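pls design
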């Protein structure tokens, strides 16, 4: 089937077939990244603007590198140097970027729904690089791509997401993608960060770490955000670590072949011990590498490219 979407706003709205198309295209682009000449001319002559109004390291650099690997021209703009600091609205900023002949906007914003809003007022593709606590679709795509590389089909696989679910856009995007791909998803953590109402998304909600981790084939750790401490979600980081931090003993409860994931940034010694983050079961750096290929696929497809072309030419 041809790719027809101009925007990537959420994983909730994607079909299984569309996720498969992105993964197939990413796999083809990943092969090009292993060549001595890593660039392809797929987006030559296009200009992509990375508008990051929230801090980012991995996502911003991966989008920047992905666009350059596709031979696009890239302009990166963060909140500290944009006119939003002078009171300019997001609408005016985005429309000025379009008027400057940009061909696509990749946006990260603290307000949930901001990419959807821009998609309704702009005539160029909009890619969501994270909007508030809503979604982070390319992270969900690269995470499931990494799982499929390691495990094959995700049908019936037990995947555990551990940590700050309540405030996590990564968790939401992964839940949407994993459920569509047939995985059995368990979310676990303190009751204040893993409320029971998440069950309506089709996941199992647990506050018992041992039973949640039992025989899991994937465990994804989420950062406990220091800035949330003032909200009183749990007494202290030390108490969280003592109850829910992944250490060697707790990792032994997993399936022996289980992989350990983390979207970053990692708070070492809080949600995960360094020995596990750097160990043989960790695929954390593989996630970072796969983020380039997945974002290449998203930029290419939303610019009007078709997956069969990449599959035959990569």
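designed seq:
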């Amino acid at each position: 089937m041809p790719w027809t979407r101009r925007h990537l706003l959420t994983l909730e709205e994607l079909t299984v077939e569309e996720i498969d198309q992105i993964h197939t295209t990413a796999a083809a682009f990943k092969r090009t990244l292993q060549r001595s000449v890593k660039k392809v001319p797929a987006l030559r002559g296009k200009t992509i603007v990375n508008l990051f109004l929230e801090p980012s390291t991995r996502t911003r650099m991966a989008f920047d590198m992905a666009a350059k690997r596709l031979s696009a021209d890239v302009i990166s703009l963060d909140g500290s140097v944009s006119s939003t600091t002078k009171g300019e609205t997001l609408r005016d900023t985005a429309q000025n970027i379009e008027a400057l002949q940009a061909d696509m906007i990749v946006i990260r914003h603290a307000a949930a729904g901001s990419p959807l809003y821009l998609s309704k007022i702009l005539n160029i593709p909009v890619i969501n690089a994270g909007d508030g606590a809503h979604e982070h679709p390319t992270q969900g795509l690269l995470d499931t791509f990494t799982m499929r590389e390691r495990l094959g089909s995700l049908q019936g696989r037990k995947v555990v997401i551990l940590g700050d679910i309540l405030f996590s856009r990564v968790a939401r995007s992964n839940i949407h993608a994993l459920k569509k791909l047939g995985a059995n998803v368990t979310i676990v953590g303190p009751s204040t960060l893993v409320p029971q109402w998440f069950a309506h998304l089709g996941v199992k909600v647990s506050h018992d770490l041992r039973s949640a981790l039992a025989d899991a084939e994937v465990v994804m750790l989420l950062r406990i955000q220091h800035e949330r401490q003032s909200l009183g979600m749990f007494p202290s980081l030390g108490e969280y670590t003592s109850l829910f931090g992944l250490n060697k003993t707790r990792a032994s409860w997993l399936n022996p072949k289980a992989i350990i994931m983390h979207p970053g940034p990692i708070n070492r010694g809080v949600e995960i011990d360094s020995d596990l983050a750097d160990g043989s079961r960790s695929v954390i750096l593989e996630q970072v590498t796969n983020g380039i290929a997945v974002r290449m696929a998203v930029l290419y497809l939303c610019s009007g490219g078709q997956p069969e072309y990449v599959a035959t030419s990569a």
